Amino acid sequence: MTRGTWTRRIGMTAVATAAVTAMAVPAGAQAATATGTTAVATVVAAEDVDYTTWQADCLTVMNQALPYLKQRIAAAEPGEKQALVLDIDNTTLETDFGFSYPQPANKPVLDVAKYAQEHGVALFFVTARPGIISGVTDYNLKYVGYKVSGLHVRGLFDLFKDVAAYKTAQRVNIESKGYTIIANIGNSATDLSGGHAEKTFKLPDYDGQLS
Asked: How far apart are CA 84 and CA 96, in angstroms?
C-alpha cells in the first residue's frame, strides 16, 4: 500500500466527520526538559515509502521505547502520576495509510501504549487537529484500543499559534495537573520540541512527507 495523497486524507476526514455526526455513538463506547530523543534513520525517499517500510521503521523506534518505559514505570516514586504523551496523525493512527473510518491504530505504537496503560500510565493525546473533529478523534482512539485520559485539540485561537508552541503548552498543562511525562512520542519535530517530557521518541516522517 502506498502513502496516500493529501486530497485523499482531507476527503477521509470529511467522510469520518459525516459518519460520526450521522451515527449515534453508544453511551458505553470505550474503546520537564527532554533528556534524549530516539529516532529512526532512513535514506528512502518519502514518495517511495510503502506501508511495510513505514511499519518496520515505526517498530524500530518502539522497540527502543518499550524497554525504557518498562524500566521507568518500574522505578516510579510512591504516589507519582506518570503520563505518556502521544501525537495522533501517523503516530497513534494510520492517517496516511488507513483509508477507512475508524482509522486503524499504528500497531507498534498501540502495543507500547497498551503496556503503559496496563501499568497505570495515563495516556494524553496532543494533536494539531481542530476541535471540530474532537468527538470523531476521541471515538476513533478508544475504538482501536487506546485508553484516553485526555485529548488536546486546537481551539479557534490555537489555529493561529505556532504548532510547536501550542503542543508545548499542552504538556505544561498536563504537568500542572500533577503528572510526570515520562515519554513523548510523535513523528514531527513540532511534536517533541519545547521540553516538558523526560524522554522523546521520534517516528519517521520522511522529511515531512507524513504529517
From this structure: 23
> Is the N-terminal amide bond of 204 cis, ω within 30° of 0?
no
Tell me the domains of the chain and their CATH numbers.
6-202 (3.40.50.1000)
Output the DSSP codes for 125-172. Answer: EEEEEEGGGHHHHHHHHHHHT--EEEEEEE-TGGGGS-HHHHHHHHHH
Radius of gyration of the chain (CA): 16
Whether the predicted model's global pTM rises above the 0.85 cut: no
Is residue 110 within 8 A of residue 138, CB to CB? The reply is no
Mean pLDDT of 112-139: 96
In this prediction, residues 41-47 reach a mean pLDDT of 45
Q: What is the per-residue pLDDT for 150? A: 97
Encode pLDDT of 154-199 as tens digits: 888 777 788 899 999 999 999 999 999 999 999 999 999 989 999 9
Which residues, other chains included, contact 169 with Cβ-Cβ below 8 Å and sequence gap of 6+? none
Q: Which helix (H) or strand (E) holds 44?
A: none
Q: Is 78 exposed, middle or buried (0-12, 13-18, 19+ CB in 10 A)?
A: exposed
